[in-house]
Amino acid sequence: MKLRKNLQELISELKTNEDFKDNIAHWHTIDAKPASVVPYPETMDKRLQEALKKRKIDGLYTHQATAFEAATKGKSLVAVTPTASGKTLCYNLPVIQSILENDKTRALYIFPTKALSYDQKSELHEMITEMEVNINSYTYDGDTPSNIRQKIRKAGHIVITNPDMLHSGILPHHTKWVSLFENLKYVIIDELHIYRGVFGSHTANVIRRLKRICHFYGSDPVFICTSATIANPKELAEELTEKSMVLVNNNGAPSGKKHFVFYNPPIVNKPLNIRRSAILEARRLAMEFLRNKIQTIVFARSRVRVEILLTYLQELVSKQLGPKSIRGYRGGYLPKQRREIEKGLREGSIYGVVSTNALELGVDIGQLQVCIMTGYPGSIASAWQQAGRAGRRHGEALIIMVGSSSALDQYIVQNPEYFFGKNPETARINPDNLVILVDHVKCAAYELPFKAGETFGKAEIADVLEFLTEERVLHENNGKWFWMNDAFPAHNISLRSASQENVVIIDLTNEPDVKVIGEMDRYSAMTLLHDEAIYLHQGVQFQVEELDWEEKKAYVREVNVDYYTDANLAVQLSVLEIDKQRNSDSHEAAFGDVSVRAMATIFKKIKFDTHDNIGSGPITLPEEELHTASAMLSLNPVKLGWDENRIEQGMIGAAQALNGMVPLYVMCDPHDIHVYPQVKAAHNEKPTIFIYDRYPGGVGLSEKVYENADLILRETRQMIERCQCETGCPSCVGTDSASDSAKRDAVQLLKLFGSEII
Amino acid sequence: MSLKSKLGRMKSHISLPETENTVPKEKKTTKDNFSAIPFLEKWTENLTSVYRLDGSHCLIRETSYPLDYQHGSYRFNDLLGIVDSWNNSPLEHPLSSAGHQAGDLFFFDTETTGLGGGTGNTIFLLGYAFFENDRVVVRQHILPEPGNEIPLYQSFLEKVNYETLVTYNGKAFDWPQLKTRHTLIKEHVPKLPDFGHFDLYHGSRRLWKNKLDKVKLAAVEKDILGVQRENDIPGYLAPIIYFDFVERKDPEILFGIMKHNEIDVLSLITLYIHLSRQVLQLDGYNRESLEIARWLKLLGNAEAARQTYEAAIQEGTETEQLTALHGLALQWKKDKQYNKAKEAWELVAAGGNERQRVEAWHELAKMHEHHFRDYEAALFATETLYVILNGRISLYGLTPEDLEKRSARLQKKKAKNAALSADDR
């Protein structure tokens, strides 16, 4: 039996082995960085100092000390901290200090996911136990047993929860939490950068409600946020909490040596510039490490890819390592499954994990040595967080990012300076999105009546109150607005998904023993859970037997087939109103409201391995209508001498490229926006590219696109020009456009749409 | 574009109640609270007066019944005898009104605008019945519209004795909700004191959960207390009716809900009489006696329980005899009368219902293992349980894993025993 190789050996093999070395587009080494430590602040409680000393912490990292000082002076702050930099002490120290000073003090910790709060609680708990003081910290979420809930409400110094629970389980019942709200000194918001887009816009309103209730009980908490590196942490924290923030970014934590490798799969079709599938390539790389029992985490961008990779790897490696040594991890799994996987990773009984970005957050899974990303994860902040999963606590680590054929991935792989330079990603939220705002005004009115002249955070809501009164949801009496409905409003409002109702997935395999195995938002369900779709869960294939759209239930049954399914969405769009506009001779840019009607039309069956199309079928689901915000880029008539078809083909190409590039500038998932070209837009009869938010009312993404249109158009044009293909490929203008001139035409159109002179 | 027209456009994305009447609400002119109460005549006709406080008001309705009025199976004045009986009984029980007079009790129920315990679930009616000067008085405090809570709670707190409330599920619902709504205006009204409470829901559930699908007050009234309701408006319509009233101000429609609440509080009197008679065993041995015995045992009153069980063995049907034996066996085990307990459980294991059989075999398995050290018999009991479970993942708290564990342990003990006795030889 051959000896196992260690990480060092594998790193040098990667550099020299013919199979791999030519595919390495960029090798970036980040040197180890020593710690920058200062003594404990004098004001810090001696018991706290003792506890830290016991844990072999002899001083504070510079950023921890800055955070401590700001917080204890009553200033809200946002600490920007990379993975494994001891960020939890940035908030745990001031919180424990204040409880030691006054036993009545309360703190509320908000983590974006349950998994995270579970983990942070054990860390906090260890520290408190070492100090031998009586500080109660409790997790309060959907899994908390009802018999201890009352105790937590009354006696929990530190209550750990998530925004969803705060929204539907705590705020609507604030009268049962009097001792918390009367004495709330600190609110902790961990992983701030996650609060963007729809989720961030909702959470900003949940925080408005929280602050309103605090005000009622006479408290005014200090907010401590921590964030991964993004371009605008202070701005985001201030928009989310509506408090002015101190920015703490003097990171003093040490870090080990890291190898960051950009890996571009080989081109398999030169004229079309098609590369080998990133999934297959990631599989090949992961195999190498797993075979040598090196703990490896593989990230994939979608649930489907996680399941595909998992199937591949389990098949290949299970004989050598045992079937349970490689596991999947993603949002749709039930809490118990997730706990089990987290535990296996920490204990080392699991060698490999294939994950969606659920694990990108700071869940403590111990020491992984290698991280492989299947494709660029969509944002630089995400990529660094995923990279942080490798080598959290020990020396050398290897991170491999395998580029896919998508435009965005190719841009990143070929422009490492963009990635390793200053992060340009701006996290956007729009707390005043009308749909979201109205939802939370309802919840807020349920919690406490509104008074005349009262604002909701910074939002003026007189019109909203009047609207809700007309709709008989509120009742006005003597200058106050009261909830007047038999519903519990928070139950119908989900903070995370665009649609208000999720589709429940029901497994019929063992009839009559049917069971719920997961859920999915409505919009995704249109293309992933339609009749006959192949749905993958824990590496097991299911076929959808029936999607009951009325009841929002998908009935699935286990199958064993060699293909997966991929669905098309048809879109119709009309302009309702233009809010902002700027014109020039060649083009005009506008921003306003549009109505979009989307319908899933057909699906294709795609064979594993070869990715051949082996069949298709219709999807019969009703149209979904969306009112949202859109940027509109239109072209004034010019003498191009092209026929309409050529313009259309060129625009399809340009749109495809834009769809890839926009997320670089507005920090969103490519699915959060849509780019839709129309040769003759109904509202101005001009060739127009629409870039719209996929959430009703918009969450600020398309507005940002409108503001930065010229920059985005220029960068997109350069990306296409730099692409090595001849007439267009999936990495630039896509293959939907049929004409040979599409690539050239897209470049020219992008110049015209922007302010560039030809 | 104005916010309002945007709101109109986004309407399809906003979840709103479905209203038949889409005519926009008329804008109210500023209202003087001292101005005439709308439909005052109708209110007055229905025995209701206006309670005014600092420019706001609520409504209070008061009606009364003679003491010999029959409501369901009892007359109200039966309560006087019941309170006497409690005062003369040595029994300690959560429903005991010993130390009180009939006039101390307030039979209390609320009507709200929604279900569940959220802050925005508004109480719009606080109703209670009590004994005063040879009459049973029903008093109802009514919220004319949301926002008039201060006079509502002020008048309520002035008039009610909250140390002796009698409710149906008030511990879990009415009182916490009252506390919640009180918290919102706590600066303007007296503090909410601690309260004493007789909650009739738990007792009713204990006695009738096998008999009634849902142990709701309406079901208890109909099937146990013999209360007939005529033209009753079901309680679940209360929110819609109240919203309609707030909009139109015509109280006609609300009178139905008020009548419903009135019967609720009166039925609480009948229910208290009936439950007390069962607990005190004033009607001798009957169908509820065994449940009462279990309840007494749970409360730690073993002697009272034993007496009831023995009565059941004398007078009950075969099923009741088995149930009584099962109860007695537990008692005997506690008193270390193991042989008596074993015999009783052997009977229950043979003839009881499924739950009793499972519990009896389980007890036998435990006794054989730990007390008699008869591992063979314990194994037999364990295997029998396995057969009863028949593949189910859990039955009355027992799982196949539990049984497997027990079985493995017994095998081991048995083997060890065999080895020991071999050594002896």
UniProtKB/TrEMBL annotation, chain A:
Q: Which GO terms describe its molecular function?
A: 3'-5' DNA helicase activity; ATP binding; nucleic acid binding
Where would you find the membrane-spanning parts of this chain? none
**Which PROSITE patterns does the UniProt entry name for this protein?**
HELICASE_ATP_BIND_1 (PS51192), HELICASE_CTER (PS51194)
**Where does the Helicase C-terminal domain lie?**
286-435
Would I find Nucleotide-binding among this entry's keywords?
A: yes
What are its GO biological-process terms? interstrand cross-link repair; nucleotide-excision repair
Please report the stretch or stretches of sequence annotated as the Helicase ATP-binding domain: 68-248
**UniProtKB keywords:** ATP-binding, Helicase, Hydrolase, Nucleotide-binding
- Record has Protein transport as a keyword: no
Kindly give the CDD domains that the UniProt entry links to this protein: DEXHc_Hrq1-like (cd17923), SF2_C_Hrq (cd18797)
Entry's PANTHER family? ATP-DEPENDENT HELICASE HRQ1
Q: What is the name of the protein in this document? A: DEAD/DEAH box helicase
Q: Which organism is it from?
A: Peribacillus saganii
Automatic annotation (TrEMBL), chain B:
GO terms (molecular function) for this protein are:
nucleic acid binding
Q: Which Gene3D superfamilies match?
A: Ribonuclease H-like superfamily/Ribonuclease H (3.30.420.10)
- Its protein name is YprB ribonuclease H-like domain-containing protein
Query: Which PANTHER family would you find in this protein's record?
Result: EXONUCLEASE-LIKE PROTEIN, YPRB RIBONUCLEASE H-LIKE DOMAIN-CONTAINING PROTEIN
* Native source species: Peribacillus saganii
Output the InterPro entries linked to this UniProt entry.
RNaseH-like_sf, RNaseH_sf, TPR-like_helical_dom_sf, YprB_RNase_H-like_dom
Composition bias (Basic residues) maps to 1-12
**One Pfam short name:** RNase_H_2
Q: Where is this region: Disordered?
A: 1-28
Boundaries of every YprB ribonuclease H-like domain copy:
107-275
What the entry lists under SUPFAM superfamilies is as follows: Ribonuclease H-like (SSF53098), TPR-like (SSF48452)
- Organism domain of life: Bacteria
